[in-house]
Write a structure and sequence with these properties.
This protein is mainly beta. It is built from 3 helices and 10 strands; from the N terminus they run βαβββββββββαα. Strand 8 and strand 9 form a beta hairpin.
């Protein structure tokens, strides 16, 4: 079973709400971050996460959210862990897929990185669907099949929540 490992983020005090960080450029203002780590050095915690996924985690406050999928692509999940301890807070099956599309062996059915803002986390699995969840309860507030072009445009404008979620 793969493990999610919090390394740099354990030392960074800032939130990381989207792919490549707050500004989408992969840079952090945090200082005195470790330059090396191993299985035991500079690792705050490790948590086993079921399935196979390449999405990056997103962080807001004490929550770390990521996606995962069963290797056959029939079940797609969102997982939330506690930032300080790695304890799994939520493990929600978001979609069941009857006939998954082809996925290259070096990829996964859970590759897109979530996006988080106060009160909401957004996940997409491409064609199988996109969902908006309440970040406090894990409840799905809205979901459906939305084209990649619409998702990309909405995320770029930071107006995604109005696309599938009520206020």
């Amino acid at each position: 079973m793969p493990a999610a490992v919090l390394s740099i983020s354990a030392w960074a005090g800032e939130d990381w709400p989207q792919f490549r960080g707050p500004n989408g450029d992969g840079r952090s203002d945090s200082r005195d971050l470790p330059l090396t780590w191993s299985e035991s050095e500079n690792v705050k915690w490790k948590t086993a996460i079921h399935g196979k996924a390449w999405s990056s985690p997103v962080i807001l406050g004490d929550q770390v959210w990521l996606t995962t999928a069963m290797e056959d692509g029939r079940e797609l999940f969102v997982v939330c862990v506690e930032r300080g301890t790695g304890k799994i807070l939520r493990d929600e099956k978001i979609f069941e897929v009857e006939k998954p599309q082809f996925c290259h062996q070096f990829n996964s059915y859970a590759s897109p990185t979530p996006v988080i803002e106060p009160g909401r986390v957004y996940v997409t699995f491409g064609s199988p669907g996109t969902a908006c969840l309440d970040s406090k309860t894990g409840k799905v507030l809205g979901s459906g099949a939305i084209s990649c072009a619409i998702i990309t445009a909405a995320l770029a404008r930071h107006r995604f929540s109005s696309a599938i979620c009520s206020s």
